[in-house]
């Protein structure tokens, strides 16, 4: 909940059975989008790697929470969302320090949230696990914010933006702010109102479609069939063919000096 200074506090109220914390979701009846408040009433969650004034950042690490208390200032992009009228309803879980941990066995300090899809025992996957799950299971949320990851695990949509579109302190070669949502219209509306330097015009469509062989084909045949169908549509529309490439091979051809011979993921 935000006071006049946009200072947030943790809601300690529990569900009737005492097992879960409740989420405060204000009514949209009091929020009407306007030019100065285009996101008025939009309910959003933010990944627990972004600062939110008045709340503690966990980074999904018990040691981190012992060292650092609640933050006195929100992250720049979080501030922008609030200033534009977005309602931050909570924070979403992630892997520890947004590292490449796989749910659920590699989650140690904090337990991985449950994927509501299927039999509820499917891996939610990736560092932005909580962001995807919050949309998969919570119809009250319009969007969540996190860092880039593949969304075919949750059958959702995501846009992540190139460097120079917002202030951030992480390495732009590896991280960039992104938005998750259920529709391209919602994503386009949110991104176009919150990111800078994206209103550009292009005279041509992309001429190369990269196909990373480390990620494809997918283990799930139905997912792979849908992926192949989508790629075929892109190929026909753009008049090009996919270009298979291997990340490890490309890395070995031109590795960064800082890697000192270490290949790929270990670096």
TrEMBL record:
**A Pfam family hit:** Amidase
Ranges where the Amidase domain occurs:
33-136
Transmembrane segment boundaries: none
InterPro entries per record: Amidase_dom, AS_sf
Protein known as: Amidase domain-containing protein
